[in-house]
Amino acid sequence: MAALHAASFTAPRPWTEAEFRNLLADPGVFAETAPDGFALGRAAGGEAELLTLAVAPEARRRGTGRALLAGIERSARARGATACFLEVAADNGAALGLYRAAGYADAGRRPAYFRRPDGTRCDAIVLRRVL
Asked: Is the dihedral of CA 97, 67, 129, 24 positive or negative?
């Protein structure tokens, strides 16, 4: 997961193997996997959060991201969640397109939330979908 995350993200920074190991040890965290991607979610208190979704760059635009997102939503519902939230970089047009096409709507904005490798900051858009 760490290697695929590093191939998929520069901002926010890629997560380390230790970070993935710690997340997956949390009983509220769950994963959806595909040959070319994965997604992690967390459910608690009737809400879910998409923690990250990564698809190998050479495998994008083939439906893998949408399938992983749908799997996260199914798993979240099975864990009692009635809504799912996520944060996405305001300038990540591809991800925003995926999430909005899946029914996510703007729920807020976090100014200067993500840090780029060059030190600049980027806003996060908070999206929400009723499950």
From this structure: negative
How many other β-carbons are positioned within 10 Å of the β-carbon of residue 69? Answer: 23
| Residue 53: closest CA among 96, 21, 18 | 96
With 0-12 / 13-18 / 19 or more C-beta atoms within 10 angstroms meaning exposed / middle / buried, residue 61 is: exposed
Taking domain 2-130, whether its CATH number is 3.10.180.10 is answered by no
**CA 55, 59, 64, 66: dihedral to nearest 10 degrees?**
80
Q: Answer whether residue 6 shows pLDDT above 80.
A: yes
38 closest CA partner among 67, 58, 15: 67
Q: Is the pLDDT of residue 70 over 90?
A: yes
Residues 86-111 as b/e (b if ≥16 CB within 10 A, e otherwise) read bbbbbebeebbebbeeeebeeeeeee
Q: Cβ contacts of residue 20 below 8 Å, gap of 6+?
A: 1, 2, 5, 40
Instruction: Tokens 């900051």: give the residue.
Output: 121
CB 37 within 8 A of CB 65: yes
